[in-house]
Amino acid sequence: MEIKEIISGIKLDNARALAKGLSLIENNPERGIELLRNMDFSNRAPIIGITGAPGSGKSTLVNALASLWLEKGHKVAVLAVDPSSPFNTGSILGDRLRMSRLFLNDNIFIRSVSSRGSLGGLSQTMVEMADFISATWFDYIIIETVGVGQSEVEIAGLADKTVVVTTPEGGDSIQAMKSGLMEIADVFVVNKSDLKGSEKMVSYLNEMAHGRFNDREVPVIPTIANEFDGINELSEQIFSMTQTVNNGKSVILNSRKAYEIIAQHRMQDVTTAKLLEDLKAEQNNKGFNLYVWLEKYIND
Ligand SMILES: Nc1nc2c(ncn2[C@@H]2O[C@H](COP(=O)(O)OP(=O)(O)OP(=O)(O)O)[C@@H](O)[C@H]2O)c(=O)[nH]1
Ligand SMILES: [Mg+2]
């Protein structure tokens, strides 16, 4: 399928064109970028990152959120980042089974993406796949990543809004967590609120969220994902936060994305600082397309 055909297929909400586009991005980076250059990002869907410790209930939450949004008539795409660390391979299968009910619906798209080959967690391919889907017919894109090492921070770069999932059990470990987590969370979820210590965790996070490092309002929502408890509240919160998502919320994110892509080509003397400056001036222009914009920095 030619790029032109993919583009026209996407305009007709054609699932085959979506699949072709994603394979192109995965298998042929050059042509993937060419495809992205031709996409229209003027009405892009918000990307919601869901991250948290292994086993905190991210997939259960994603499943619940996606079901609720489907019921409301929204179209939802889910990318689950399949971590290459061996301890997680079993749970991915579990995730697939739990989500299988959703596979039946045309308004949902689910794909596991390998994080193989990336430096810190999310691959460039993943970023491009999410971007691509955001310019198709879906209303919301959810990305689940396990919060280990760098990946939380990266998901915050990729996502328009980031949900950090904690549990009452995580009480000790969260104290030890680097302050980075506070900065990336747009919402905290205390999942497994059926377990002891939930209220303590909620008030701890509330305290942290209103601490001196952060003047943003970061809501803390208790949930019991496997019982659909708190899912409405979380959904409402996400809806209201994403009202203002526009074409490229974060210049920092875009400058990093651009840097990665340019770095794959021959570099001029481009720095992320320079890209950040240039982006600030340009990315709010109507019809801005990052992939077209960065061409001028590539000299080959
Ligand atoms: N008690 C309780 N168990 C839950 C809740 N939510 C999820 N679980 C269970 O916790 C386990 C892990 O859930 P997952 O949704 O797979 O967690 P995850 O964060 O996606 O796990 P990884 O992808 O492996 O990091 C499963 O057995 C779920 O049924 C909850 O609110 N309360
Ligand atoms: Mg999972």
Word description of this protein:
This protein is of the alpha/beta class and 300 residues long. It has 3 domains: 1-39, no CATH class; 43-242, Rossmann fold, CATH 3.40.50; 251-297, no CATH class. The chain is 48% helix and 13% strand. It is built from 14 helices and 7 strands. It has helices spanning 3-11, 15-27, 29-37, 58-71, 89-103, 124-134, 151-158, 171-176, 180-184, 198-209, 231-242, 251-264, 272-282, 290-293; strands at residues 47-52, 76-82, 108-114, 140-146, 161-166, 187-190, 220-222. The protein has a 7-stranded parallel β-sheet, sandwiched between helices. Strand 2, helix 5 (89-103) and strand 3 form a beta-alpha-beta unit. Helix 2 runs antiparallel to helix 6, helix 3 (29-37) packs parallel to helix 6 and helix 4 packs parallel to helix 5 (89-103). The longest helix has 15 residues, at 89-103. The radius of gyration is 19 Å and the shape is globular. The protein starts with a helix and ends in a 7-residue tail after the last helix. The relative contact order is 0.14. Mean pLDDT is 79; it is low at 84-94 and 117-121. Guanosine-5'-triphosphate binds at residues 54-60, 88, 91, 94-95, 146, 191-192, 194-195, 224-226. Guanosine-5'-triphosphate is lined by residues 54-60, 88, 91, 94-95, 146, 191-192, 194-195, 224-226.
Short description, anyone?
By secondary structure, this protein is α/β, with parallel strands linked by helices. It is built from 14 helices and seven strands. It folds into three domains: 1-39, no CATH class; 43-242, P-loop containing nucleotide triphosphate hydrolases (Rossmann fold), CATH 3.40.50.300; 251-297, no CATH class.
